[in-house]
Amino acid sequence: MNKERNTTFINLDNVISISRGNTNRMIKYLNQFQELIPERLQQLKKALDNNDRKQIRQVLHKMSPQLQFFGIQDIIKPIQRLEFEYDTMSFLELEALGNDIIYKLEGATKEVSQIIESHFE
Amino acid sequence: MNNFQPTSKTIKCVIIDDDPFIQELLKDKLNQYFPDINIVGLGNDGKEGLENIILLKPDLVFLDVEMTDMTGFEMLSRLDTINFKTIFITSYKHYAIKAIRFNALDYLLKPFDLEELKNAIKRFKSNYHKVGKSEQVGLALNNLNTKNISDQILPLKTQQGDLHLALKDIIIIEGDRNYSIIHLISNRKELVSKTLSDLEDLLSNKGFFRCHKSYIINKTHIVDQPNSISINISNGMNIPISRRKKESFVNWFKTAKVL
């Protein structure tokens, strides 16, 4: 739990640091998260449904830097595992890791939306 | 003096990445910390990247390794001339990093540690006039297109300057603390400022094997194995195989392709 800002999934230290007190810049990064991550989550769900391992790797690879930037640390290792073992991992394990990532990203997306609503609208 | 001489906003830079988050983040970091860098263009994929480069003639290009329409290397190979320096950008431990490191190209990991970015810009400025802008990338593109691995060229630095070695010319590499001595055909030797571990990392999938804490051997130059603890090499040397490497040496020797 990121106590100061009452968040569980995300940590806004990097966003605050790059924004340097500029609210517009901060909202730019938060909006971008809200625009890009749900779309990529849908792509990930679809790829998992279709057992499309190459697409799973590509979606995760694309998302990974933004998730690191938003401090969602405990899914970085599972993402890296999926990126490197996507073609050898058993489907059961792949599905379990994928679902855990989806759960955490849905939580992170909700938190970002709440922050936008409560602080910037 | 060879260093880049910025006056104001003198370094023209283009960012090519298909992720809008990465574009924005890099743009903000460059604007905040590097006032002498002027971002003149953003490319959303390889095609736009090519258009930006041709039209805007940048000094520096930050180039994504893996884009939706093509790889960064494919994009570069489509240019007739390369009059800029490239810093590749990629996510953590991408498979292309090995090729980037083998070819001594510069790269940054997303989402960009500030100190690493500062160091990369510093290297760009100090090397801008030292090395031909197209030379390093041209060498990398040639290596990537060379089917026979032993014909690939390994770029290294020595005290005398840059050294380009064909892998087939390397017989063995001998470790010497923070340096390595490369034994070449025609009894030539070169001292390079890389450890044996650095070189093992660069060469392990290219027909080379670290058979001992002090030696890396090139399979092409193995003559025979008189016993289980040593091998004879084409230059007449007898190289030891360490006890703990005996089994992995046998496996490697059986499976590694003769290049």
What share of the residues of chain B does DSSP label as strand, in percent?
25-35%
Would you tell me which CATH topology of chain A applies? Answer: Four Helix Bundle (Hemerythrin (Met), subunit A)
Architecture per CATH nomenclature, i.e. the level-2 architecture of chain A = Up-down Bundle
Helix-strand pattern of chain A: HHHHH
Mean pLDDT of chain A: 90
CATH level 3 topology of the largest domain in chain B: Rossmann fold
General shape of chain B: elongated
How many DSSP H or I helices of chain B?
A: 8
Radius of gyration of chain A: 15 Å
Q: Give the CATH level 1 class of the largest domain in chain B.
A: Alpha Beta
Q: How much beta of chain A, percentage-wise?
A: under 5%
Number of strands of chain A: 0
Low-confidence stretches of chain A: none
Range of helix content of chain A:
over 70%
In the sheet with the most strands of chain B, the strands line up as: 2-1-3-4-5
Return residue spans of chain B where pLDDT drops below 50 for at least 5 consecutive residues: none
Please, what is the average pLDDT of chain B? 90
How would a textbook summarize the main sheet of chain A?
none
